[in-house]
Write the structure tokens for this entry.
Amino acid sequence: MDNEIHSLLANIWFLIIGLMLFLYVILDGFDLGVGILFLFTKDEKQRAIMMTSLESIWDANETWLVLLGGSLFGAFPLVFAIMLQALYIPVMVMLFALIFRGVAFEFRHYAKNKAPWNLAFGCSSLLASLAQGIAFGGLISGLGITESNYQGNVWEWFTPFSALVALGVATGYTLLGAAYLIIKTEGAIQRKSIVQAYIAAILEIIFMITIVIWASRFNPYFAARWADKETGNYLNLFLVLAFFAFIMLMWALWRGFELRTFFWSVIIFLASFTAVTIGYYPYMVPASITLLHAASSSKTLIFMLAGIGLLIPVMLVYSGYQYLVFRGKVHLDEHTN
């Protein structure tokens, strides 16, 4: 009975952490995507409106990353420890890039010469995106772990597969950023964002296909899961959903729909994220550490549910209210800083 309760609690926290990760990827993803698009924008007024569209939400979006790290440390401390050890370099690069991005965001507003801070904001956004992607790619491709101890070297995470995943994540964030700007802008910048969304969506689907083929052929565990009839059916279902979302995204862009463009971009991420989760469940570190092996005691998991578990609905309500308050277009002639 105790084992069943512990298994239930571990799975509940697995779902909660998955939800946190997904919310962070979507919310801070479009935030970082706008920063990446900053590198492809030369008009200072267009840059100003891109910044203005993020002013009221960017720091709240990153709150999910803080909550994710704390929850992972409490619920699955073994995974937290191994990830920091094995992925130390990409994690530190991501954190420094996010910090420098925040500095660039604030300093640009007051600087007379905005060019250095424009470059800093764009480059740090791209670097943070690539670091997240390469860390995720390194994790799902497998790490050198023996008996719950990391045995690999400091560069174990750097592989052609993880580099490919990093490009896919950065491209996906760019798609989300362009879709967000379509909602928040109008005129020339919106038309430009539609073109950028087209390009990012096509590149993203190419990266997704390549990653799936690579993982199914060269990752033994993922290939075995795909070969399993029941699991393979679920994987195929979510891949079909991703392709359907891509077609609907193209249609939404062609018809000039704003909210639908962002919605279908999110569905592509949701389908891909769910497929990866199913493909590696019940492992948190593929083929090495299961969620039951990594989970804290039942008392700890219950205690955390009483705290962080109740905090999540509050954050969801706050985030929803925040986006409701700051909805609507941002106009170029109103913000030129």
